[in-house]
Amino acid sequence: MQASTTGRVLHDPKGGSFRFDAGAVCLDFAHTGGAGRYAVFETLHEPADLAEWLAQPPLAAVMTVPVTTRELAAAKALRQAVWDTAHARAAHRPLPAEAIATINQAAAKAPLTPELAADGTTARWATPVRASQALSALAREMIELLSGPLSERIRECASDNCPLVFVDTSRPGTRRWCTMERCGNRHKLRALRARRADP
Fold first, then answer.
1. Domain region containing 69
2. To which H or E segment does residue 77 belong?
3. Does some domain include residue 3?
4. DSSP SS3 for 17
5. Which single residue of 60, 102, 123, 166 has CA 20 to 30 Å from 5?
6. Contact 26, 141 (CB under 8 A)
7. Using the 8-state DSSP alphabet, how is residue 35 labeled?
8. Is residue 181 helix, strand or coil?
9. CATH code, 93
10. What span, in angstroms and rounded, lies between the C-alpha atoms of 112 and 124?
């Protein structure tokens, strides 16, 4: 159990990878794959893949009970619900009722329980640690995000072909890109070329 920063390395099926910090673990989770055109980005193929993702910081929920295929299906449903509600909020559209129900259903499960380790200075998750508990924690974080002060800071990358969503936690609230190194620089290069081409 750690309180470190969010963010994960995302891999492009066409090659290359980059670090993307969505500003919330639940939004990082939303970028682990998907259905339809996002199936090429899928990283949660088997229950073990979900266990590995949840075990990474900052959640650091190391499973003591094996993840089941049912929990994997629930994880993918929650992931889609987080994705759908984040995009709806970023676009100032009403949140889909089905997605809200899915998030609430996941949040209603028992969450992870922190406990103080014997040394009295570190914390861990009390056993048993189940995937449903970790999913509950992610759902609860999404509820807090959607209903809290950062709700209006949920953004979609300003690039016309990048669907990544994030919480703009910058002080001025002016973040536009998934990362400056990726879409931000591409935009700068296109703008520079356009200026040079303009007589």
1. 8-197
2. helix 69-90
3. no
4. strand
5. 102
6. yes
7. S
8. helix
9. 1.10.3300.10
10. 10
